[in-house]
Amino acid sequence: MIGSLVRLELTMLRRDRRAWWSLIALAVLVLLSFAAIAGDNARSDADKRAVAAAERERWVGQGEKDPHSAAHYSIFAFKPSPALAGLDPGSEPFVGQSVWLEAHHQNDMLYRPQQNASLLQRIGFASPAALITGFGPLIVFLLAFTLVAQDRERGTMRLALGAAVHPRLIVGSKALAVWSAAAGLLVLPVAVISLLSLGIGGRLGGDVLLRTLCWALAMAGYLALLAAVGIAVSLRAGNARLALAGLFGLWILFALALPRVASGVVDAVRPLPSSQAIRQQMAEQAPAFWSDEQNARNRAALLKRSGVRRIEDIPNLRMAELDLMERHSHAVFDRVLGGFYGKVASQDELFAALGFLSPTIAAQASSSSVSGSDFSHHRHFIDTAERYRRNLVNAMNADGMAHRAHGTERHTNDARLWSRIPEFAYSAPPLGALSSTALPAFAALLFWLGIAGFLLVRISRRLRP
Amino acid sequence: MSGPRFRDLFAWEWRQVGRSPLLWTVLLIVSASFAWGALNTAALHSAQAAALERARQVDTAFHANAAARARAYRAPVTSSGGPVAYWQDPTDVAGYSEYFVRMSALKPHLPSSPLAAGVSDLAPSRLEIRLNTPFGFTDTYDFENPRGLALGRFDLAFAVVFLLPIGLLLLFALFVTFERDRDMLRLVAAQAVGPRAWTGARLAAILAWSVPATVLAMIAALGIAGVPLGTAAGSLAVAALLTVVYMLFWSGVALTILARQPGAGAALGSFAAIWAALTIGLPLAGSALVGMIDPAPSAVGYVDAQRRIGDEINAERDKILAAAVTRRPDLRPYADRATSLDYATRLSFLVPETERRLAPLRSAFEDHRLRQEGVARIAGFAIPTLGIEAAFATLAGTDPARQRTFEAQARQYQLRLRGIVHPLVQREITQPPSSPARTTRGRLNLAEPLTLPKFALADRPAAERIGGVLPFLLWLGLLALLAITIGLVRTREWKVVE
After folding, report:
1. Could you give the number of structural domains in chain A?
2. Cross-chain residue pair B264–A351, CB shorter than 8 Å
3. Which residue of B has its CA nearest to A153?
4. Which of A120, A132, A424 to mutate to test the interface with B (most CBs of B within 10 A)?
């Protein structure tokens, strides 16, 4: 029974050219944006793989030199695009893609794809997730309005309700029709195409499958709650004009205004310190080039640590001092930069919690988390690269410290040492490992889905012909 | 029977519209969004200004510390205080050039900056200038939460470009279609009034309330955000004029749709489609097209080139140094010293060579950026929403062109500093090598740190910035006129039969 009702409603939807073509147009935009982003990512990842291989060759083939010089030469690490970045690039266009892992510095990740974007590129950058979360409500509300408010205006709704044994069946079939049309055209094709392209690119695994499924579920859930809200408002409003004005208002509020307002509120409530100040703090507390006065303090500390009385008894004073300062810098970076990144995560957590104000916020935060393109995932790369850097520099310094070098003595090493450093490799964490910041968003999405479903059931119970 | 005069119709409509709570609700929401947008951007810029001030203080402290150390290192060598290594010694001109010349190029905000965030959340407002960083500065940035960047900032330009037209279109759709949706259009049509005068009077009445309210809301929002209205009067007046013309443009679009006298549903559906096409569809298509036709050079490729060229330079180091020293008549007699130069002195020759080899790639990036800006400028004429954003950013001084100027001047500043410091560093090649048994802690071939010039951004005058926006303003005015004319021409007869 419900199946044939849904089919009927879908036929009615297709007859309303304005609503149906709007849905088709958005679906086409979703696919085009996916193609553009996925294509860019594929090119960029191929470049990154090629240059990363060249970096490895350069590292191993850098020739004989002082190990600390090798630690300065080091390598550049490149961040591969998250597998689902074609669906939701999240923070990716605005975070660096490469980092130089040199001694003394935890460098910033550089080369943000949108760093030098023109206004056209910045305004024109829209991902499938952004289109679905931002413009999905407009289209879904238009579909809901078409199926309900206009029926009411024409009087056909009264006839249908009078003839129906269960008015809820009619309302339910309308909501299902709107949802299935929206999800079937906006979410399903792009999710399938994404899986196909990942399969072709050899990136399809269990985690990717699970992430895609979760992303599709989150987006479908979002569209379902919008469909329920759209139908409920259309049923409750006094007339079609009010329904339309109300739905427009909700779209503007949910999708256009509140996400940006929420972002501004988060900035105001949990402000980030200036990153310049952070860099200055790091440079002050862990300078790459320290003063002669610091030298004296370092030597005293080294004598104490080594349990010797004379500097000459430390086999390689220079390397020991470099190692001392390097390890000191690790603690500083963890405290200063780690604290800063913690604040960024805390901002994201608050933003996700504001998903209880707008389902669009909840959908945005959930989508980027599931896609592995939020800041938590970016930080995972930063931390992985930093661990690699520290291991590399420590290994170089340790080699230096193990060899005597006083006066004119100099210790060098070669490919035998360089090749003992493993190649830098990055694998993204599995789904769920870094979802804690987005947990409030998932909860908010479920909350909205529950509220919308409850609203729809309650309104449909009260319906009278 | 003679119909009512337009003036009378307008006066009647003006009173009716003015009594509607819908009008005031929409205008209140628009005003609130203006205030939030201006305050939000002002808060960002105020935080950035504070960061620049802190950077200034840190620089001052750093240079004061270097000067104090330079004085301290004049002391003779003792058992507890030996000679200071060259990289720690501000009295050693080579060490000074590499480790103590650290200046800041700062881009302050203009008084009108709360008009639009532009690129101010993405591009750095402080560049650290060191002598030997290739091309002026590293590709750094001020970290903003990337989630916020991806979402876009709720600034005044966003409220004007995106929210204002929605509010206006909602008013037009709900006010003008009232009679149609209540089946009263036949009644109106039966009167001695044409559809042009009737629709025109109502639209004009909505505008007569909305335009002054919007302009006042904008000025109030900027005032609340702390913009000195007197100082930035020119830019603000043009921004207000742009907003008014933008409202007229959307009025023309609305009139064109409403000429068919549709119901509210159909009108809002069409408005939404046009709005979405102008705000997202066309920019998305334009951006994708431009990206396909003129893709950006690979940043990863640039890293590769940097590393490759760095290795080449390192391999050819002695040859390059010998050639550089031999080329200089004043240094030629000391060519044998070319291979034993200290690191900082070597850099003064090697970095320009690195830049020379990287220049084609660097130019490719710059050229691409310029082309993209040019395309965006032209696209602004085709996509008014983009044009307004760009115009607001220009008036606010947060446009990409000002950023590019800042970066170019920062590079010139670095070259100027090199012109002052490098000759002093290189002159040391002609001096006898320092004795290993130094009597003072510092080398003292630089008596005290140099008083280097500070960076000052040479900004375009406000009039020039305003002048840059005027062609678009004129064009938008023409578009608005065209849309209104088309709308009026199409509103010829009553369409009471659906």
Report:
1. 1
2. no
3. B181
4. A120
Rounded distance between C-alpha atoms, residue B166 and residue A252, angstroms: 8
Disruptive mutation site among B162, B303, B304 for chain A (greatest number of A CBs within 10 Å): B303
Which pLDDT score is estimated for A95? 95
Mutate to test the interface with A, among B120, B130, B284 (most CBs of A within 10 A): B284
B263: nearest CA partner in chain A = A241
Q: Which amino acid is at B368?
A: H
pLDDT of residue A429: 94
Residue listed under structure tokens 């500390």: A301
Three-state DSSP at B265 gives helix
Contact across the interface for A120 and B287, Cβ inside 8 Å = yes
Confidence of residue A191 (pLDDT cuts 50, 70, 90): very high
Residue A61 is predicted with a pLDDT of 95
- CA Rg value for chain B: 32
| Closest CA relative to residue B176, chosen from B485, B491, B479 | B491
State the Cα–Cα distance between residues A200 and A47, nearest whole angstrom: 18
β-pair partners for B106: B126
Given an 8 Å threshold on Cβ–Cβ distance, is A90 in contact with B181?
Answer: no
- Number of A–B residue contacts, CB under 8 Å: 259
Tokens of B356: 């020379």
> What is the distance in angstroms between the Cα of B331 and the nearest Cα belonging to chain A?
29
Q: What number of residues does chain B have?
A: 498
Give me B81's structure tokens.
């205080």
DSSP A255: I
Report the gap between the CA of B131 and the closest CA in chain A (Å). 16
Q: What pLDDT does B2 receive?
A: 67
Which of the 8 DSSP states describes residue B184? -
Q: Tell me, yes or no, if A289 comes closer than 8 A to chain B by beta carbon.
A: yes
Q: How far B232 CA sits from the closest chain A CA (Å)?
A: 24
Report pTM: 0.93
CB A90 within 8 A of CB A428: no
Q: Which residue of A has its CA nearest to B30?
A: A257
CB within 8 A of A169, min separation 6: which ones? A1, A2, A5
Query: What are the residue ranges spanned by the domains of chain B?
Result: 1-291+381-415+441-498
Residue A126 DSSP one-character state = -
State the pLDDT at residue A150: 67
With both helix axes pointing from N to C terminus, report the angle between B233-258 and B264-276 in degrees, rounded to the nearest 10: 130
Higher pLDDT, B268 or A417: A417
DSSP secondary structure, B362-411, as one string: HHHHHHHHHHHHHHHHHHHHHSHHHHHHHHHHHHHT-SHHHHHHHHHHHH
Contacts of B166 in chain A (CB under 8 A): 248, 252, 256
Half-sphere exposure of A399 (CA within 13 A, CB side): 22
Residue of B nearest to A263 (CA): B148
Q: Which of A133, A35, A88 is nearest to A371 (CA)?
A: A88
Please give the average per-residue pLDDT across A345-358, as a whole number.
Answer: 96
Q: Which of chain A's residues have a Cβ under 8 Å away from the Cβ of B291?
A: 36, 40, 121
**Residue A464 CB neighbours (<10 A):** 7
Query: Tell me, what's the pLDDT at A278?
Result: 93
Sign of the Cα torsion B216, B222, B228, B232 reads negative
- What is the full DSSP assignment across B70-95? HHHTTSBP-SSS-PPPGGG-TTSHHH
Chain A CB contacts of B73 below 8 Å? 292
Q: Report the DSSP beta bridge partners of residue B487.
A: none
The range of the structural domain enclosing residue A442 comes to 2-462
Q: pLDDT band at residue B1, thresholds of 50, 70 and 90? A: low
The secondary structure of A293-330 as a DSSP string is HHHHHHHHHHHHHHT-SSGGGSTTHHHHHHHHHHHHHH
For residue B339, give both structure tokens: 């291979």
How far apart CA B161 and CA B168 sit, in angstroms, is 12
ipTM of the complex: 0.92
Calculate the average pLDDT of chain B: 92
Instruction: Say if the Cβ atoms of A119 and B285 lie within 8 Å.
Output: no
